[in-house]
């Protein structure tokens, strides 16, 4: 991907409408009929996947996607499965540091 993306969680969706973002979290649910899933990243985020791109419930992912402007859902461009040992609390701290000291991350 050529475009720059910023790391966020559910609390920052509204501030990043229409932008490319990175989100780390755990898949809580997946509906194969609609290709929608819920990712927990400091709160729930609705993901819209491409047909055939299935997320596994209770697995951790890093999602690169675009935040919608009307409903704050995220259109998935890339989903990378992460280790089951991922510490989501630490991932949330990373999000906070990215926004407190952005010059360290860009």
From TrEMBL:
Keywords: Nucleus. SUPFAM superfamilies: Nucleic acid-binding proteins. One of its GO terms (cellular component) is nuclear lumen. Pfam families: Rep_fac-A_3. Its main location: nucleus. Belongs to the replication factor A protein 3 family. The keyword Iron does not apply. The keyword Nucleus applies. GO terms for biological process: DNA recombination; DNA repair; DNA replication. It is found in: Nucleus. This is Replication factor A protein 3. GO terms for molecular function: DNA binding.
